[in-house]
Design brief:
Blueprint (H helix, E strand, L loop, with lengths): L2 H5 L3 H9 L6 H20 L2 H17 L10 H20 L18 H18 L3 H12 L4 H8 L3 H26 L3
Helix pairs in contact: 3-4, 3-5, 4-5, 5-8, 6-9, 7-9
């Protein structure tokens, strides 16, 4: 399948192509969703090489399980659930789960005031998020950085929606308090 043809297709249409024998069409799903899976890997493993390996493993798992995708949720939600489970399993075999990458950088134009401000803001947010309880950090990360709905976070994590809402609410409050505290400390005479 040519890229232009696949770009206009919904994930479910590409999945049908793959399941009907066009296995090369799966590459379009990989291109479309690899950044989200990679970001999830960075959140868990804090290392680009590990996140890249993780991303490849998640897509291999998704490809082999593609016949189990029923379309009750979006493909991206189903894929992130596979990734979340894989990451948790790896982390449980190693050590306790640490969900956020304190070294993750937001892109910016080097040498500009906007880039400097973005870098400082990013650093402050990363530092504040690193202090959150792990479940709150995971929920707020999936909500804001992955732009997922509560129902999608529920599918990925297995947490009840009300618990997710509570984690997001508490995390936002804690982040606001910590960031305001840092702002006050930076502007003290």
């Amino acid at each position: 399948m040519r890229t232009r043809e696949a770009d206009g297709l919904a994930d479910e249409d590409i999945i049908n192509l793959v399941l009907n024998g066009d296995t090369e069409a799966f590459a379009h799903l990989v291109r479309r969703h690899r950044n989200r899976v990679f970001r999830l890997g960075i959140s868990f493993f804090h290392d680009e090489d590990e996140a890249a390996d993780f991303t490849q493993d998640v897509f291999v798992k998704a490809y082999t399980a593609l016949t189990t995708f029923k379309g009750r949720s979006k493909f991206s939600t189903w894929l992130l659930r596979i990734g979340y489970n894989a990451a948790v399993n790896v982390k449980l075999r190693r050590k306790p789960v640490i969900l956020l990458d304190p070294e993750f950088e937001l892109p910016g134009e080097p040498g500009t005031d906007v880039a400097h401000m973005r870098e400082e803001t990013s650093r402050a947010v990363r530092a504040a998020m690193a202090e959150l309880p792990p479940k709150q950090a995971l929920c707020i990360e999936l909500f804001f950085y992955f732009d997922l709905k509560y129902s999608e976070i529920e599918e990925i994590t297995g947490f009840p929606v009300n618990t997710i809402k509570s984690h997001v609410f508490r995390a936002k409050r804690l982040l606001r308090e910590r960031l305001e505290g840092e702002k006050d400390a930076n502007h003290a005479p």
